[in-house]
Amino acid sequence: MSFNSQRQFQLFEITPIRDPNFGTDTPLYSDPTLSAVTPLGNGTIAIAVRSVYIQTIDLKTPASLAEFKAYGDDYQITYLEYVKDGMLVSVGECVGKPTSIKIWNLGKTPKDAFDFHSTCEVRNGNNTFPVSAISLSQDLSCIVLGFVNGRIILVRGDLYRDRGSRQRIIYEDLNNEPITALFLNNDYSVTFASTTSRIMLFRTTGRNNGEPERVLNANTGIDLNCSCFNPERDELLCCLDKSVEFYKATGEKHSLLVEVPMKKRIFLIDNDHILLLSSVSTPNSTALQLSSTGTITKKVLILDLKNQLIAMNHLLASNIVHIYSDTVDGVYSVYLVTTDGVINRITEKPVDKQIKLITQRELYPIALQLAEQRSVSPLRIQEIRRQYGDALYKKNMKEEAVEQYIQCLDITETSEIISRFGIQKTSRPDDSRNLATYLWSMIKQKLSHSDHVTLLLAILIKLKDVDGIDYFISHFSRNGEFVEEGEDESSWSVDDETFFYSDIVLMDLDTILQLLKDSELDAQAFSLVHKFSKDPIQVVDVILNTLDDPHSALKYIKSLHVDDTLRVLIEFSKVLLEKLPNDTNALLIDVFTGRYQRSTKCEVNIREKKQTISRNNPVFHSYKAFVTYMYSTAGGVPNSEDIQEPTYHPPKPSLVFTSFIDRPFQFVVFLEACLESYNKFQGFLRDKQEILTTLYDIYLSLAATDEAHNEDWRTKATAVYKESEKLAGTCRSPQAPKASNTQFDNSLMMLISHINNVDLYSVEGDASGTEDLSVNKANLTNTFRSMCLTKEAKKCMNFLEKYGSVEPELYRMALGFFLSSKQVYDSIGGAPVFKARVLDKVIEMDLLQPLDILFVLSSTSVATFGLVRDFLINHIKAQQRETHNNEKLIQSYQGELQEKEMQLKTLLSESEPLQVKVKNNFCKMCHTLLDLPVIFFKCGHIYHQRCLPEDSISDGNGSPHYRCPNCAVDIEASENLIKPKKDNDTKASLLQAALSSEDSSGDRFKVVSEFIGKGGLEFGT
Where do the H-state alpha helices sit in 249-363? Predict the structure, then answer.
């Protein structure tokens, strides 16, 4: 992998921290004698100044915390490192003397060079070669030192507890090349070492005879300060001329190409970032500068190893003495100590600022990588993707843009994206496909609604993407969710109550269905409507009209529940009867006779070869012939016991009567089947009457058109009419149950008979009464009315005399008919016959009021003056007789009333003593001779006191109050009659309430008259 120079950002910021004592006699870290630096944590550092002094400084203040002399004056401190528990390690060197390693306990604030925790001296021959590299363990049990003469000395012991140490030479370079790097691994078992020509690995345990355990690179070495160690990954980083190489103790290696000339130093910031320090030569910018070599400037580069970019590029004019890292108040930073008395703090910018810098240059993939690595909120990542998608769309990279839009649906205005790729704005198929992809993603993430689903299907239809439509149908569930594994057609059950009773609108099914039909995608139209339509009518419409497959339509209809089957048959039975008359009629018969049983499976397979539709279907003249044929085709034998009882209440057959227009023979079969079912299993009589009436009409129509079977049809019509007459008579009879006592007649049959020129009287029987039909009164009146239309007066008179006693209403009808014309009047014999057979019967039976009779007689000029005069004279005489009789009754009632009043007055009189006969009298209760004490009532009844009930009513004085047992019922009835009068007399509000009620609003006079009649206007006494 390599870095692209174009991918450079300033993702880190550098802040100079200047020494406040710069230029004074007591500088802090700007002391020019500064030779070593190490962080102590949280903004505190330890520095070596003036050769042998160690000083601790707080950079946050900044101020010096402590200072002490660590070595004698002839030494030079060249290395400082802080280990655990406040221990500071210092390395002092002096030519001709052993290298001195001292451990200081900063917690005890050392005072002088002898106030150390422990010490160790390392001897390297005559000690004339300085230390070039050093590495030590945190527990101070292992220290390795490298010298410029190529020697590596290992020191092992327990310096942390001051228990001494041992040292030995583990390597000595034959060419005396200086040791440029030393790094112990995490468990201190090996150390990485390098010279200017080789990179090696040594074990710190056991003996190695001065040879490396492994040579990691035998061709190239490392310059001083051009390597570092990553403790988290346990690997060595080496900065070479054209690359940065990574070595593990196992010998594994990988490289990173970095084209950075004049690399001087490398520093590990974290696992993903390294800092490179290089020198840059800049030419003289003015002619006044005498030197021609130019200026050497330090370039600070921070490489992002994970994202392959330069995270910072900064130039420094001063030399860098030391680089270290520290965490101050929770913020991790890298510090560059320069020779001009400034510590440059390098801190990573907040991730939001980094992303903003990257997106400003439209390098959105890098921004997304960074956001995902730094665990940025999902919404922020989606915002970056939205910006990325916008940028791609502007570059006309629409497919790539859609991929980004799909991943930021939560924050994207979907309508805006849809409008960009809308099928109305472009004719490019690619844009439609991109929009379909976007809509699919919305469906999969449950962010779509019905309009989105409708648009997706419209696009797929426009693209003629049959596979896409099939995929949608199988993977889009009835609850509006995407199903990854898909759904089989067998799961699209009509018993799915969760779907059929839900109010979820999945799509504009009507629109999509029409688009599929227009595009001739018939199979897809059926699959879509079969799965997603809640209306079986819609499904059958596709099968029957779009696919033109009536056999499959019948199969589907038979799989429905009876309610849905009925709805479908009402809608499509006419079409089905045209294509499959007998099969459809059989289904209609099953449904309308209550024997329909749905099939458990819908075996509709539109991909199978369609069955041929026969045009030569047999025609049947009766239901029995139809049943015989249907059983023979099914391989069975008809049996009356095979007819099952209805499992539900059959619907009204009249619902599908219109479907049989121009199909009389199928209609006859259907009606006969319904009639047979009604006769066997009972049903609503009104429905049966409708069947009889319709069947009667069909029979007569066929009798007129089918000359070959004319007599058969008329015979059937006669039988139907007689059955209708019998049914009407049953409904009128007093023995009929209340549920069946429905007020209806068969008057429509009269009209049908008249239209077809059928003589109903001949159907009923001749005038001699040789055939007595059990008919009802309504049918008699209807028959007579129909006969009147024929103007055959003699037949009407015979019918009247025969059935007049059964239905007196016939005389009232005959009164007007025989007076309708002079011809009719004379044909029956004129006034004598009319008066004797008709008028006298009407008067005798009191069928009309005299005024009504007079109105009928005078309505035409047929009745003679003598007939009217005789009627009036007879009526007046009858009224006089009635008046005379009434006067006699009044006199009789008055005498009886006076007698009763006298008796009542005598009983109520208290002044006259009442004589009671006790001797030889009997008790009305026990019927034995009376003996005292007795109780006598003014009504004349007398009882033993012991015979009266003990729970008699007591009056206010405490004495018992008795009532006559024989008259108690009459007294109670009288009191009940008086009570309403008292209520009306005392509660006038009852009248107002009665008048304001809705029930009495139509007859207010009746309410007032009833109130007055009950004594409402009388005053109480």
Answer: 351-360
Q: How far apart are CA 545 and CA 414, in angstroms?
A: 38
Assess whether 738 and 845 both reside in one domain.
yes
Query: Is 801 in the same domain as 869?
Result: yes
* Whole-Å CA distances, 80 to 37, 54, 164, 932: 6, 9, 20, 145
Q: What is the pLDDT of residue 774?
A: 43
Cβ neighbours of residue 751 closer than 8 Å, sequence gap 6 or more = 786
Give the Cβ contact number of residue 350 at 10 Å.
12
Tokens of 231: 């403790």
**Cis before 933? omega within 30:** yes
Using one digit for the tens of pLDDT, what is the confidence trace for 653-700? 999 999 999 999 999 999 999 998 888 877 778 888 889 999 999 999
Which residues have a Cβ under 8 Å from the Cβ of 644 and sit 6 or more positions away?
Answer: 595
> How many angstroms separate the first and last alpha carbons of the chain?
125
- Residues 833-868 as b or e (16 or more Cβ within 10 Å = b): ebbebbbebbbeeebbeeeebbebbeeeebbeeebe
Per-residue exposure over 179-208, b if at least 16 CB sit within 10 Å of its own CB, e if not? bbbbbbbeebebbbbbbbebbbbbbbeeee
Question: Looking at the predicted structure, is the pLDDT value of residue 769 above 50?
Answer: no
**H or E segment to which residue 915 belongs:** none
Closest C-alpha among 630, 701, 688 to residue 660: 701
- 132 with 115: CB under 8 angstroms? no
Question: With 70 as the cut, is the pLDDT of residue 637 above it?
Answer: no
Instruction: Give yes or no: residues 836 and 926 share one domain.
Output: no
pLDDT tens per residue, range 476-490: 999 999 998 888 887
* Residue the block writes with tokens 């039988």: 719
How far is Cα 570 from Cα 563, in angstroms, rounded to an integer? 11
| 426: in domain | no
pLDDT for 940-965, tens place per residue? Answer: 788 888 888 765 555 555 567 778 88
Output the pLDDT for position 33: 92
The answer to whether residues 941 and 846 belong to one domain is no
Lowest mean pLDDT among 51-65, 235-249, 601-615, 715-729: 601-615
- 604 shares its domain with 741: no
In-domain check, residue 42: no
Contacts of 415 (CB under 8 A, 6+ apart): none
pTM: 0.66
Distance (Å, rounded) from C-alpha 468 to C-alpha 476?
12
CA distance 720 to 203: 119
Query: Which residue type, as a one-letter code, is found at position 150?
Result: G
For the chain, the domain total comes to 4
Asked if residues 623 and 676 have their Cβ atoms less than 8 Å apart, the reply is yes
Residues 6+ apart with CB under 8 A from 828: 793, 794, 797, 818, 834, 837
Cβ contact 199:230 at 8 Å:
no
Q: Does 951 lie in the same domain as 821?
A: no
834 has pLDDT over 50: yes
Q: Other CB atoms closer than 10 Å to residue 689's CB: what's the count?
A: 22
- Which range of residues forms the domain containing residue 935? 922-955
Rounded CA gap, 974 and 976, in Å?
5
Least confident of 389-403, 452-466, 905-919: 905-919
Dihedral sign computed on CA atoms, order 345, 26, 296, 286 = positive
Which pLDDT does position 379 carry in this prediction? 93
pLDDT for the residue 740: 47
321 and 37 in contact (C-beta within 8 Å)? yes
Q: How far apart are CA 71 and CA 816, in angstroms?
A: 153
Q: Which of 358-367, 780-789, 938-947 has the lowest mean pLDDT?
A: 780-789
Between 50 and 681, the higher pLDDT residue: 50
Q: Are 858 and 975 in a shared domain?
A: no
Residue 199 lies in a domain: no
